[in-house]
Amino acid sequence: MAPRGDGLLSHELLPGEKGPQDACGVFGVWAPGEEVSKLAYFGLYALQHRGQESAGIATSNGEQLLVYKDMGLVSQVFNETALNALTGHLAIGHTRYSTTGASTWENAQPTLGATAGGTIALGHNGNLTNTVELVDLVAERYGSQRRGELARGNTTDTALITALLTGDPDHTLEATALEVLPRLRGAFCLVFMDERTLYAARDPQGVRPLVLGRLERGWVVASESAALDIVGASYVREVEPGELICIDADGLRSSRFAPVDRAGCVFEYVYLARPDTSIARRSVHSARVEMGRQLAREFPVDADIVIPVPESGTPAAVGYAAESGIRFAQGLTKNAYVGRTFIEPSQTLRQLGIRLKLNPLREVIRGQRIVVVDDSIVRGNTQRALIRMLREAGAAEVHVRISSPPVKWPCFYGIDFASRAELIATGLTPAEVGASLGADSLGYISLEGMVAATEQPKSQLCTACFTGSYPIELPPSAALGKHLLEQSELPLGAPEDGLHTLVGTTGGATALEQP
């Protein structure tokens, strides 16, 4: 048997050292006559950076809805046979990193549920902040008996959204969505579908990106514009904050469930999004290059070469070199084929200095005064190991430049940072952080410099991880946390009478049809 994905990545410079992770990537396509499952597959492939723990695709042929999902990377979960079995004219896809609920098969998406007129499959990017309130709402409306995803052991806020959307026997899914969506708080980009219609919705703040694209014979929605490019769709526009889009045989229609109150995540520009994506009409690559230029203006230094920490530090390093006039060089080489290893190095092997991800080019490094550009520092362990590696390779000086301000606060909107106690910038000045890392100097870009590089008004960005100012009100700390639904005895429920029968489950595949 082939090894089953365990949902654990071990491809960093330090095994077990995890950088900031985004919640998920979502993709949806309505395109009669096209191979929608394969379009969804390639769309998810383009969004793999947004989540590497599990992946899933749902399709519908107008009568029956099929879902296939499993733990692992997109390329590990799907093969030609699985995709050929997922027939239909519309599809949604999801690639997950867990920010609510554990990394288990039960929590993989798309989620499933029975509605008054059919079946719903749903994928979610983001993180809700009023989970406890929604648990109470589900229990109040549908009683204490667990049904659907909740009965199958799903412990995510996505399962709660699905329960609420499937619980109204007197209204269409579209009408139910327009009633439920205003009740959600936090970050949510949703793609969902029933047998005939594709839906997309985005929270009123537009924390996470979501875009709409056009195919010759259909429509596409995706977390990032780069996914549109991959499947040959032309960019149309963003899904607006507070907007619900519905796409079916009658075309595309739009409804507004909340007024726009923009607070887009600035960290998407710094690190999370692909560089070939545009957010709010600003090229992410251009924003990162400008962050590097601003870094050079704010923290100049006499040095011989500028090197990036690949790949996330490369655009900012290009900008730093261009602005400073210091030569750009590739001082670190990255293993392009590292994705996942199922072998955990022992302590003895770790002491040998196993380098799965990066290795220095000694002939470039030796004797040089180096500026190393990276996008962010979280715990600092990776940068500390990297600086040690560069010194061992013969670097004369190592000056670290970071294209974001110090990360000091946790994110509750879909990025899994370390806890505040683990964040190296908590309680330390930049000089003290630099000394802790072993750098000759350390410079973080200013908040104003970073924001200016995005070309977005500061008032329309979320900078909470840098400032501690949260644009969406947070509940008490007891009502927050990744494993909230697993650790509590909160009442969970869903409608007692399911309208669909489970007719087949093979591996990660689930088929639902009307009885």
Automatic annotation (TrEMBL):
GO molecular function (one): amidophosphoribosyltransferase activity
GO biological process, one term: 'de novo' IMP biosynthetic process
Keyword Metal-binding: yes
Catalysed reactions, semicolon-separated: 5-phospho-beta-D-ribosylamine + L-glutamate + diphosphate = 5-phospho-alpha-D-ribose 1-diphosphate + L-glutamine + H2O
Enzyme Commission number, as recorded: 2.4.2.14
Uppermost EC category: transferase
Active-site residues annotated for this sequence: C24 (nucleophile)
Residue span(s) of domain Glutamine amidotransferase type-2: 24-250
InterPro entries noted in UniProt: GATase_2_dom, Ntn_hydrolases_N, PRTase-like, PRTase_dom, PurF, PurF_N
SUPFAM superfamilies: N-terminal nucleophile aminohydrolases (Ntn hydrolases), PRTase-like
UniProt remark on cofactor binding: Binds 1 Mg(2+) ion per subunit. Binds 1 [4Fe-4S] cluster per subunit.
Family note: In the C-terminal section; belongs to the purine/pyrimidine phosphoribosyltransferase family.
Function: Catalyzes the formation of phosphoribosylamine from phosphoribosylpyrophosphate (PRPP) and glutamine.
Protein name in the entry: Amidophosphoribosyltransferase
Lineage: Bacteria, Bacillati, Actinomycetota, Actinomycetes, Micrococcales
